[in-house]
């Protein structure tokens, strides 16, 4: 039986960030769009940015700036299957909010085409 991804680990600007189960990773790449010409359907491509959505928690002694650093930085996504994706141009969408349910912090990055190692 083959293993499929179950654990996702994130490194953001050299800081390891533990994330909850349920994180979603979407690589950047071309997206096909339908082009209808009468009864014919063709296609065109457009580039679509990649994204990563994950939830972590701010732990005692951890710096908030480890989670939020404005501007581009390096995002590395590691799966427990051995897949590693590197994005040197990643940007955090917005300053994250913290809630009172264990200090959970929702994070979302966007990035261009990365590299699979």
TrEMBL record:
InterPro entries, per database record: Phage_Mu_GpM_tail_tub
Superkingdom field: Bacteria
UniProt name for this protein: Phage tail tube protein
Organism: Roseomonas alba
């Amino acid at each position: 039986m083959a293993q499929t991804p179950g654990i996702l680990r994130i490194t953001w600007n050299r800081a390891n960030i533990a994330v909850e189960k349920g994180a979603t990773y979407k690589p950047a790449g071309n997206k096909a769009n339908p082009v209808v010409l009468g009864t014919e359907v063709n296609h065109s491509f457009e580039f679509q940015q990649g994204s990563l959505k994950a939830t972590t928690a701010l732990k005692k002694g951890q710096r908030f700036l480890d989670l939020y650093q404005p501007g581009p930085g390096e995002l590395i996504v590691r799966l427990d299957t051995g897949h590693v994706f590197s994005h040197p141009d990643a940007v955090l969408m917005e300053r994250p909010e913290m809630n009172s349910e264990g200090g959970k912090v929702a994070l979302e990055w966007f990035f261009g085409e990365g590299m699979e190692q």
